[in-house]
Amino acid sequence: MFKVQHVHGFLDQSKRDDIGGDGEITSGGGGGGEGDGDADGDEEDEDGRFFALCVVGSDFCELERSTPTELSLPLNFSDIFNLKFPPVQIIFFYKLGESTTTFFRTVILPKVKHSLSITLFHYLPLAGHLSWPQNSEKPIIIYNTANDGVLLTVAESGEDFDYLYSDIRYASESNPYLAPLSVSDTKASILSFQITLFPNKGFSISTTFNHAVIDGRSLSLFMNSWACICRNLDENVKICPSSLPEVLYPSFDRTVIQGSEGLEMQYLNYWLGLKLPGSDASPRSLKPIPFPVPADVVRATFQFSREDIKKLAKGLKNNNKVKFGLTADCRPRLNPPLSRNYIGNCVTSCDVLVEAEHLLKENGVVYVAKRLNEMVKGLEDGVLEIAKEKVPFMDVEPGVRVILVAGSSRLGTYGADFGWGKPMNVEATTIDVGESFSMVESRDESGGVEIGLVLKKHEMQIFDSLFVHGLKSSFECHQSVTLN
């Protein structure tokens, strides 16, 4: 069934009184109640645009009476490593000329909502919340059928859809399309979504997920499962949850991670002992550490080849030091290995410090890649032992520039086809907070990579000029900066 709570509101970010600007729900939702998920209770504003908040629960039927109504799961070592990091936010843009308001309300939205409910049946813990009971040494994941569900925000926008996913633009322009996630000192939601209609252009689906519970591979598996169920859903039949293809079936088994008990407490004690200037939050608070977003930063997505990356290195000054940081998947490197479909965090950080002079050489990028590859290969000699040397915040020497890589080109992000085609673009908005870039596989080119960047306006103009006139001199490229 669906548990639906409708709240009147507006897509305009400045008028969304029920949702804080930082993505946290800061006040109560107002009227409504529970009802069937197919009931249209959406409110309309004076412009005829609708906006609603719906709490979507997992879909049960008579054949699934044995499904537990309550469950709990512990956090693993990698979950606790990410306990206080900000939620991850991603937007999937889908182009669909047939997306009239009527078609969206009668076809797209019902299928998306119903398939989400079915998907949550397979991913029950993600419909729950993170809690840290006073009698518990560590935070835990709790799911309760009567109280839990996933927040789905439904909205409509009159903005230029093509501009939002294809042009260089201010990073803040993505904010109205981000899914809010409820987080307090004592309770934190795990997952939320927002679907936004752009009439006659397409729609977007954004997700915000708690990084203390799942990683990028887990999210990709969930999105591909949801999309698979949606595109195979008979819109005229209310089906019971059916089996997912084996390649998409999730695993929540925490017993398969062996030998990490001391590591969990090591990371937890790190967070408990961390003192932030000006913060009076309880050490057991579940609120993430705030990372301010720099003002007036702009966003763009670029297609890169290996040759492009070599040319980029020439833009660095010879006296710079650069620390490259990325995350490596631990699933195949644990003993015994975990299933690729393990749901939860199972990553560790890798970083290398490189003198810029090495990057300036003809084989500079190859050198960095070799160093990173050696670091990742070293994980196979004992990933848990190496993880004991890690802390959530890396130490950085003065004058060292840190570049972090978010995401991976091996997650199958563009596989999230809900039945109306794969995404036109996937945007990781989380990189707004610092010097990092996102990486996903190319939508159209096998083996290609898409890089998302957020930079100051003048930096992006320089980068764009380098990319267009230098890196892409042999290709047709019409991207330009047109910011006022």
UniProtKB/TrEMBL annotation:
Which keywords accompany this UniProt record? Acyltransferase, Transferase
Segments of skewed composition (Gly residues): 22-34
Origin: domain of life: Eukaryota
Q: Which GO terms describe its molecular function?
A: acyltransferase activity, transferring groups other than amino-acyl groups
What are the start and end residues of every segment in region (Disordered)?
Answer: 13-43
Q: Which InterPro entries match?
A: CAT-like_dom_sf, Plant_metabolite_acyltrans
Tagged with keyword Lipid metabolism? no
The UniProt entry's coiled-coil ranges are none
Q: What is this protein called?
A: Uncharacterized protein
Where does this protein come from, organism-wise? Answer: Salix brachista
What does the organism's lineage look like at the top?
A: Eukaryota, Viridiplantae, Streptophyta, Embryophyta, Tracheophyta
